[in-house]
Amino acid sequence: MWNQGSTLKDDFVNKVWKAKQEMIVFSGTANPLLADKMMHYLGETLGAIEIRRFPDGEIHCKIRDNVRGKDVFMVQSIVGSPNDMLMELLIMIDAARRGSANRITAVLPYYGYARQDRKDQPRVPITAKLVANLLVAAGANRILAMDLHAQQIQGFFDIPVDHLHAAPVMVKYLREMKLSKPLVVSPDTGGAKMAYAYSQMLGTDLAIVAKQRLGDAEVDAFSVVGNVEGCDVIMVDDMTTTCGTLCAAARILKERGAASIRAAVTHMPLTQKGVERLRTETELIELVTTDTVPLRSDLDISNIPAKVTVLTISELMGEAIRRIHEDKSVSSLFYS
Asked: Would you say residue 128 lies in a domain?
């Protein structure tokens, strides 16, 4: 009798363990093309989920696949309509939690509200922390993000955070250019650490542009630390929306004698103002970005002077999902 009970117990444990080994990935509506690419890399298909709007604009979500005991990944960029996309993600996580998922990982190719990461004025919020609280309260057990606007955002969470960087993808492309005299430049002092990392991977010197922000979309670049004369400049930044920082920095770099100027930016939630700047005010010859953020359908970038190159981070994030699911290290993905 004891042996029979032991066998039944072992069978039960094995069934539970098998269920926990099953992975299922769902995508919100912010960037389904990127999620499809990630699944293609993994050799899997996206889980079935129904997301629609009620007549008054409220979001309805229903997970069609069984998630009980499974390792669930929710892919969503908080961009485009950030309020809707955030709420959509929270509702997806809540649905998976109430469906008895074993673990829920929020996969955030672009973490919205990341710019508000500190209280630098009286009576302003720290919205990056608020979003972190909301994700945890909804039921997320883990976070996978790409190039957060500030490193300290990882500390806003009391759950594990895997913070990937687009540098391995960007650096591979930049190396293939075989520029004669490359130089990495940070377009502002806040991005110096990121630019230094790129300079180490590319084996180049580093320069920094000093700027003063005149408003949400206006920037004045007034000084350059370092010699850029005759160099093929590569400006690196985590994001751009109105291209104010990039265009202001490109102007002063050209004045200081840069031979050519390119920009490598992880996230590009481009606005109409940004398109206008790229069309009329920029010295950039190429803007390299990734597909963490889909280009808005109402924007036309066909007639801007700078070449826009979009690299995919689907394999990088797909591999991170695989390793998280298999409880393997993801630290090797940080380097090129």
From this structure: yes
Q: Output phi, psi for 156, to 5 deg.
A: -75, -15
pLDDT in tens, 269-279: 999 999 999 99
Q: Report the number of distinct structural domains present in the chain.
A: 2
* Tokens, residue 295: 């280009």
For the chain, give the mean pLDDT.
Answer: 90
CATH of the domain at 134: 3.40.50.2020
172 with 307, same domain: the answer is: yes
Residues catalogued as catalytic: 211
Report if residue 5 sits inside a domain: no
Is residue 1 included in any domain, yes or no?
A: no
What is d(CA 235, CA 223) in angstroms, rounded to the nearest whole number?
Answer: 15
Domain limits for position 274 = 167-312
Residue 261 has what pLDDT? 95
Residues 185 and 291 in one domain: yes
Structure confidence by residue, pLDDT tens digits, 162-196: 999 999 999 999 999 999 999 999 988 888 899 99
In the chain the beta strands, taken as DSSP E runs, fall at 23-27, 49-53, 59-63, 71-75, 103-108, 142-146, 161-164, 182-186, 206-213, 219-225, 232-239, 260-267, 286-290, 307-311
- Give yes or no for a contact between 63 and 55, defined as CB atoms under 8 angstroms apart: no
Bridge-based pairing of strands 219-225 and 206-213 is: antiparallel
**Closest of 73, 80, 149, 151 to residue 107, by C-alpha:** 73
User: Do 199 and 205 contact (CB within 8 A), yes or no?
Assistant: yes
Three-class DSSP category at 4: helix
Question: Cα(325)–Cα(99) distance, rounded to whole angstroms?
Answer: 19
- The verdict on 108 and 134 lying in the same domain is yes
pLDDT, one tens digit per residue, over 230-280 is 999 999 999 999 998 898 889 889 999 999 999 999 999 999 999 999 998
Which sign does the torsion angle of CA 248, 251, 257, 259 carry?
Answer: positive
Whether 116 and 194 share a structural domain:
no
